[in-house]
Structure formats: structure tokens, C-alpha cells
Specification:
Alkaline Phosphatase, subunit A, single chain, 2 domains
């Protein structure tokens, strides 16, 4: 009924597509959202968002304003691998990838790493924040959030990767809420390619729903134009700076929509990065060494990949995990890769203790982590080492040239002017669950109650003031 009856007409005020040049984003420093439970929680992710973005008022004034007037962190400790699909699954569940069932961006099959990503909600083995909200009777809007194809979300435009020979519109037809699909068709936006136009449409769609008579309780939104921009010149190149500035304007437009609907002070908005990105100059294909060692058999057709494998690496960009059919194959793969790591200096092998400490995929025998500047690729074709076509890649486990994950938040129930020295990605979902007043009992992270602003209540005729964290509306 929510899908059928939800009016997408605005509740009054300017159109959500209006430019901000005339009025600008709302002044968060001059507004006090107060304590207690927010009526709306918006969780937005930005590809490549790093801690330094949250303090750069010249480049991203809206985000920096959120951080200064609300919450931010010097470091947000990620998960392994720190790539978009595992990160988004952790933001939804509060669990490590080893637990929630999305151990990498791409899937693994009998012919090795596949092009398909973990888009379907059935890959998640754990309860999610969106499920908890829906079960409590709350509305949810999800726009391009990874891992939501087939999810029971009232208002859904899932992430979809278009395979060769298919059209995005055909894929969306059976997977998207009809009202959102009609909106995309009316706006004539290309949803198949990350771009400023696509991000702009997603924010416009969010605005239209948030300004409707009955807005959802939870909004999850992914903005990705920065990923392609980072690939054109690195995370700090001119293309990336321009893209992050455009994302900042979209965040300002989202806040303005909430303000125009008179819902800003009753909302909480959280913006998080999607992984650990690093600068890249070279690409290396370590599976070619496993091919030479007889652990991978190449398909007959050139460029077709593997026909079978006994041991194979699945790359995350800045790291990769080794999968093997038996102990003998795993030991031989480790010997080969350790030898090449020493000779090339392009990566190092992760031992069992490191893998356990990082809560990596339990199906992997061991891993490798790239030296900053190198990206690991899955291909079997020559050359083994080549100049990288992309200036950036996610999935790095450390290094001076690797960005951390940024976080900024502002709104109802959140403390003001707090910059934490370190937070964990694992703790975002359980903390939001407290704000939303919903259970997330299986989360491995912990709700950070010290970041929440208690509701101030007083009882007439008594002295003093009583403080509490309210977990329901």
C-alpha cells in the first residue's frame, strides 16, 4: 500500500531540482536539531570519501559544515576488504564480511573470478537495518545501495550492473519500485553509468520522497561519480576534486530539501566513504604465475579466462585472496607467490594470523596486499605488469598513499562539535539502530552511545534535569 499510495508531489516549497545558487544550503551551525530519536535517518555513501574531505571547507563546504556542527572522525576503521560491496553490507548489518556473506565485490565461480558483483540481497546472511525498520512498520527508501536487488524494501531502486547485450531499463523493470522507475523514465537519466547526472537524479528522487506527505523512516543512498573521477587522475587529482565538489553540492541540495519540508531538525544525516582508495601507477596480474605453475588452466579462446583452477586469486584492487581446491594446491600457490613477492616488491603475502585478525573471508587460504602504487588484477593475458589504466583503486589494507574512510553526521539525536580520534565502520549500523529504535542483535559492532545526544526531560516540581537516550519515536 505504501508503494501504491505514496504521493510524490512536494509538501510545498521550491522544486527539489532548483539550483542552490540563490539560497544556498541551510546553515547547520545556526540550527539545533535537539536530542532524542530522529523521525528520518539518511545514510549516504560517497565513493572515495576520506577523513580529509570532512575538514576541507574550501573544497566541500557542506560536508565540512556537517562535521564542524555535528560528528566526524579522524579515522574510520574499515573492514577487509575495504571495497564498496563488503563496506555497504557492513553498514547495513554491523558485521564483518566474513560473517555477513559478502566477502568481495565480485563473485567467484568454477572458471575463477566472475564479472558479476554481489548485487542480490540473498547473498546477505545477516539481518539488515532496512529489514529491522520495515518489520517495525517504518518506510525505507533505497537508491543504488549495493546488495539490494530482490530486497523487501518498500521504495527500491537497486544497484544493477548491466551485462553485455542487456539494457539497464530491462533489468530495472522487474527490480525497481514502479513509481521510481517512472520517475527515472520521465527524467531521462542514464542509470547504467556512474556520473554527475545519475547522482543528481538520485538526490532529486530522494528529495521528492522526503518532501512527500509520508516520508520514509530510513533513506539509504549511494553517490558514485567520484569513483570514475578518481580513476582519471587519482584520489586527489583535478577530476576528483571537481567530482567531490559536485557531490558536496548534491549534499547541500539534500539538506535544503529537508529544510524546505520543515524536516531538517527532526532528521539525522550520516555521510560515509565506501572503502580505502589508493593512488595507482601499475597493474600486476599475479594469476599469471599460478597459470605458469599449472594451478590454473586457461580457456582455449584468447582472453576467455580460466577453464578450471586448483588455486586462484580474486582481486579486490589493493589486495587479493587465494582460493584453492586442496591443501597441496594452496601450499604450492603460497610458495609461488611468496617467491614473486620477494622478487618484485609489488605485494606481500598475508599470513594466517593476519587473515584471522582482519576477519577475512573464511573460504580463503591466504591473501596478498599490494604495495602502494600497484593494483592487483585477475586477468591471465599478457603482459604480467603494465601501466594502470586507472589512477585509483579501492581495497588497500594500508600505506602512506592510501586514503582512510571519511564520516560526517549531523542532526537529531547526534552530538554537536565532536571529532572522534577513531571509530569503526562496524559500529555505524548498531548506532543507527539505537537512533531508529530498532533491534540489530546480531551486529558485531557496538552502538556508540557517547556520540548520541540524550533527550532532555524534566518533571514539574522536581529539582534537576533527567537525561536519557530515547530509542523510539
Amino acid at each position: 500500500m505504501l508503494v501504491l499510495l505514496l504521493p510524490f508531489g512536494c509538501a510545498g516549497g521550491p522544486d527539489p531540482e532548483d539550483d542552490l545558487d540563490d539560497r544556498g544550503p541551510p546553515d547547520l551551525a545556526a540550527r539545533d536539531a535537539g536530542g532524542g530519536a530522529p523521525a528520518i535517518v539518511v545514510l549516504a555513501t560517497v565513493a572515495g570519501l576520506a577523513p580529509e574531505h570532512t575538514t576541507d571547507a574550501a573544497a566541500m563546504p557542506v560536508l565540512a559544515g556537517m562535521a564542524a556542527s555535528g560528528l566526524s572522525a579522524d579515522a574510520l576503521v574499515g573492514v577487509t576488504p575495504p571495497t564498496p560491496y563488503p563496506v555497504h553490507a557492513t553498514l547495513a548489518t554491523g558485521q564483518h564480511p566474513a560473517t555477513h556473506g559478502v566477502p568481495a565485490d565480485r563473485m567467484l565461480g568454477e572458471h575463477g573470478p566472475r564479472a558479476e558483483v554481489h548485487s542480490h540481497a540473498s547473498h546477505l546472511r545477516s539481518p539488515t537495518l532496512w529489514q529491522a525498520v520495515v518489520e517495525r512498520g517504518g518506510g525505507v527508501l533505497s537508491l543504488d545501495w549495493p546488495g539490494t536487488v530482490g530486497a523487501s524494501i518498500p521504495l527500491l531502486l537497486p544497484d544493477l550492473v548491466v551485462p553485455p547485450g542487456r539494457r539497464m531499463r530491462d533489468l530495472l523493470q522487474g527490480a525497481t519500485t514502479p513509481a521510481l522507475l517512472e520517475m527515472a523514465a520521465r527524467d531521462e537519466v542514464d542509470l547504467g553509468t556512474p556520473s554527475a547526472d545519475r547522482d543528481g537524479f538520485l538526490v532529486t528522487a530522494a528529495c521528492r520522497v522526503l518532501m512527500a506527505a509520508q516520508p520514509p523512516r530510513l533513506v539509504q543512498l549511494r553517490l558514485t561519480q567520484t569513483a570514475a573521477a578518481m580513476g582519471r587522475g587519482g584520489p586527489s587529482g583535478p577530476h576528483a576534486r571537481q567530482a567531490f565538489a559536485q557531490v558536496d553540492r548534491e549534499l547541500g541540495r539534500l539538506l535544503r530539501c529537508l529544510a524546505d519540508a520543515e524536516r531538517l531538525e527532526s532528521s539525522a544525516v550520516v555521510v560515509v566513504g565506501d572503502g580505502a582508495w589508493g593512488r595507482v601507477h601499475s597493474e600486476i596480474r599475479p594469476n599469471r604465475w599460478l597459470l605458469a605453475a599449472g594451478l590454473i588452466r586457461a580457456a582455449d579462446a584468447p582472453g576467455a579466462g580460466a577453464s578450471s583452477w586448483r588455486a586462484v586469486l580474486r582481486s579486490n584492487g589493493g589486495s587479493a585472496f587465494l582460493y584453492a581446491n586442496d591443501t597441496e594446491a594452496a601450499l604450492e600457490a603460497r610458495r609461488v607467490l611468496a617467491e614473486q613477492a620477494e622478487q618484485t616488491g609489488a605485494f606481500r603475502v598475508l599470513g594466517a594470523e593476519e587473515m584471522i585478525a582482519l576477519h577475512t573471508d573464511p573460504e580463503a587460504w591466504f591473501g596478498v596486499t599490494a604495495t602502494p602504487g600497484y593494483a592487483l588484477a585477475d586477468g591471465l593475458d599478457a603482459p604480467l605488469l603494465r601501466a594502470s589504466a586507472s589512477g585509483a583503486a579501492p581495497g588497500y589494507l594500508g600505506g602512506d598513499s592510501v586514503s582512510g574512510i571519511g564520516l560526517a553526521a549531523w542532526g537529531r539525536g547526534l552530538r554537536r562539535g565532536v571529532r572522534a580520534p577513531e571509530l569503526r565502520l562496524l559500529d555505524v549500523a548498531p548506532t543507527l539502530a539505537v537512533l531508529l529504535g530498532v533491534p540489530l542483535a546480531e551486529a558485531e559492532g557496538r552502538a556508540q552511545l557517547g556520540l548520541l545526544r540524550a533527550a532532555r526531560t524534566s518533571t514539574p516540581g522536581t529539582e534537576g534535569t533527567r537525561w536519557r537516550v530515547e530509542v523510539s519515536q
